[in-house]
Amino acid sequence: MREKKTTKKQKKPFYKRTWFIVLAVFLVIAGIGGANSKKSDGNDPDRVDSQVSQATSSESSSETKNTETIETDTSGFTQDDHVYMMTISQKILDQYLTDYDTPWNDDDWTFAKFDENNVVFVSVDLELKDTSVKQTANCIFEYHGGSFEDVQYKEHFTSVGDAVFFDDGYCDEFFANLSSIAGAVNN
Predict the structure, then answer these.
(1) Residue 53 in 3-state DSSP?
(2) What pLDDT shows up at residue 140?
(3) Minimum mean pLDDT among 1-15, 39-53, 55-69: which range?
(4) Are 179 and 20 in contact (CB under 8 A)?
């Protein structure tokens, strides 16, 4: 009789799987939405916390004040923040990828605060030129601002599709919590 050889396919760690990354994005966005709804003062249920008013200097002889409105998203990021985070994400991805197209339409990107230490989660679908396949890129980094020429950041996690390119361990507790939540959901 012939012997059958069996080989086991090695499983990827849970945090490298697409379902896990999608679940993480969903939970982060849901958490931010829940936190923002709790911050509402309750005076106006239709009020959207997406505008911040700033007083500007008064005109020469009159005491009237002009108000400039700066629009923000649900995480409190301005349009300039989005552009900086898109630029940082592209700089990070350029370290690992070549020949890919990055959409620059703000609606194609997801921006979320990861924690209270200026760490942000940024996600975008990239089109890889050699395969014309779209892959989701996820970047988690500490955002320090700066100028376009000298954007300040500290990378914590970068993945494209199922491939993890960088992980300094900063997000391990978060990923472990998501794994336990996913395990509870699957049971």
Answers:
(1) strand
(2) 94
(3) 39-53
(4) yes
Question: What's the Cα-to-Cα distance from 150 to each of 2, 6, 86, 96, rounded to whole Å?
Answer: 65, 54, 14, 20
Tokens 């829940």, residue located: 34
CA 146 to chain centre: 19
Q: Tokens representing 162?
A: 């199922």
- The residues, any chain, with a CB within 8 Å of residue 25's CB and separated by 6 or more, are 110, 112, 121, 123, 138
Q: Rounded distance, CA 180 to CA 94, Å?
A: 33
Residue 85 identity (one-letter amino acid): M
**pLDDT per residue over 98-155, tens digit each?**
888 888 888 889 998 988 888 999 999 988 887 778 889 999 999 776 666 677 789 9
Residue in this structure with the two tokens 């395969």, named with its chain if needed: 131
| This model's pTM is above 0.70 | no
Q: Give mean pLDDT, residues 74-99.
A: 87
Q: Are 50 and 73 in contact (CB under 8 A)?
A: yes
Residue 88 CB partners (closer than 8 Å, separation 6+): 122, 139, 141, 143, 151, 153
Cα–Cα dist 38/41, whole Å = 8
Q: Which of 29, 55, 39 is nearest to 111 (CA)?
A: 29
